[in-house]
Design goal:
The chain has ten helices and no strands. By secondary structure, the protein is mainly α. It has a single domain, classed as Orthogonal Bundle (UraD-like).
Length: 196
Amino acid sequence: MPPSLPPISTLPSLPETTQTQVLDTLFESSKDLHTIALPLLAHQTFSSYPSLINAVGARMTALSAANSSQDRKILHGILGAHPRLGEKKQASLSELSRQEQAGLNAGAGEEGKKAQDENVRKKAEEEAAELKRLNDEYEEKFTGLRYVVFVNGRRREVIIQDIRRRIDRGDIEKEKEEIIQAMCDIAIDRAQMLQS
């Protein structure tokens, strides 16, 4: 059963451990995210989860624009906390991430092997290997970052085209912007799902 979210109006009065669990549910578990987001919850009220998520996104964007190495380290800690896309059996993969990535991993697991013919399974395995290779290439090109995209039902080949485009673009500042936006899009989607 997926986690649930408390009413947004109660968030400021909840214990810090509960606030941390909410942040970990919306984003991914990151002490650096807690460092920038918990003060928001202590000093500000929000009318909705999307407004909280946008405020956290604004904090991450401010860190991205800052020139201090400490700010960069905090931001990279947050952006690097997201699980690698398309990799199976990651110990740190949250249940929500596992569900969100299920379509990318379909065809590479045991159920996919039984349900699909040999050609489809082979293509899925090749795409999984290509995605792993591109994740490695991405992380080598953009040290400290992890490729993050709001999958939202997109097929693996579309994701492969996107990561290739972003690697070829080679712009770390644009990457930070895209990752922050993707993390916020994912968090808003999770909030909507967990509140309905």
